[in-house]
Amino acid sequence: MWVRSLSVTNLRNIAAAELELRPGLNLLVGRNAQGKTSLLEAVALLARGRSFRTERLGEVVRRGSDGLSAAGLAVDGRGEARLEVRVSAGRRSLWVGGSEVGPRGYHGHLEALVYSTDRLRVVFGPMGERRRYFDRAAAALWPTYRQDLADYERVVAQRNAALERRHDLEPWDERLVTVGASLRGRRGRYLARLGQALERGFSPDGERYGLLPRPDGAADDEAGGQRRLRDELQASRRQEQRLRRTLVGPHRDAIGMLIDGQEAGSCASAGQARSLMLALTEAALEVYRVERGTSALALLDDLDSELDEDRASEVCRRLAAGGQALVTTAHAGWARRLGPLGSVFEVDAGRVRPA
Q1: Which pLDDT tens digit goes with each residue over 305-317?
Q2: Average pLDDT, stretch 37-60?
Q3: Can you tell me the distance from the alpha carbon of 193 to that of 130, in angstroms, rounded to the nearest whole number?
């Protein structure tokens, strides 16, 4: 799975850009604030229908423009598909082969996994950032996960409304137990597979990385998971009625991110956190490749800003060998040295050209 061509119009500081990409490594080189990250954002938008930098797509539209477009030719084992995402007047539309489709018809043609400094909030930010990060990756892999997640969020909203109005909770309890235990189990199994891939993957200075879901839903069978969640609801009943919101379930579960057995959020340096997120990106790519039989794209922003050159080069080689990787850098010399592994593009003031 890779992108053969990319066309971008009115996305941030890019008025218009077109480039032909190759499988393997594609390096985008230029000074800061020239549009390198915006090109990665365009590819992510094409793959996911959303930005990795903001939830508000209106922010992505170039100032003074009515709307944006990101279009490209996606290639996988089934052939080629022309994909396009348009944003105009606050509305997003998705297109496949020239026809507008809904999200269900769009997702699955292309997938991308992102590494950027913004991702450090997954390590150091609130627990909700971690849950969203892993849930989105798992939902891209399994449509049933996406459905479980949507069903669970709907049940929590309905149960919260019942708590607010002091209505009978029993119907919502049973629905939350059923859907919540399923989601918790799926999340636990995905984290377990990521953890196994982490053990085999990128490990600078011999650091050991791990993931620890709390509670470990993967350890329960379906009936056991439901019993556990039912007990949690019963134990939290009085507090929930007092606060009028649902306090237990997958939307409140913690996920431990470990470096050498210690919680990364409290002990990691910024450099260690970046290495952990890189290792997670590689692990997620491996799980995706094994599960789907094809490779997702790797989008790596400003990779060499915190890693030394040898380590950054090794990451590029590993990821490019497994599929298509787009990497941004401000260091032209480093990009030229990696040039034989793939293609190099110069980005300047929103314009792109082959180096």
Answers
A1: 767 788 788 888 8
A2: 91
A3: 16
Measured CA to CA, the distance from residue 111 to residue 161 in angstroms comes to 35
Burial of 271 (0-12, 13-18, 19+ CB in 10 A): exposed
Q: Say if residue 156's pLDDT is above 80.
A: yes
- Architecture per CATH, 1-111+296-355: 3-Layer(aba) Sandwich (3.40)
For the chain, counts of helices (H) and of strands (E): 12, 15
Burial of 15 (C-beta count, 10 Å sphere; 0-12/13-18/19+):
middle
CATH topology for 133-295 is Glutathione S-transferase Yfyf (Class Pi); Chain A, domain 2 (1.20.1050)
pTM score:
0.89
Taking Cα atoms as reference points, which of 182, 155, 183 lies closest to residue 169? 155
Q: Which residue ranges make up each domain of the chain?
A: 1-111+296-355, 133-295
Scanning the structure block, which residue is given the tokens 């991110």?
257
Return phi, psi of residue 164, to 5°.
-65, -35
CA distance linking residue 251 with residue 16, whole number of Å: 41
CA gap 347, 36 in Å, rounded: 6
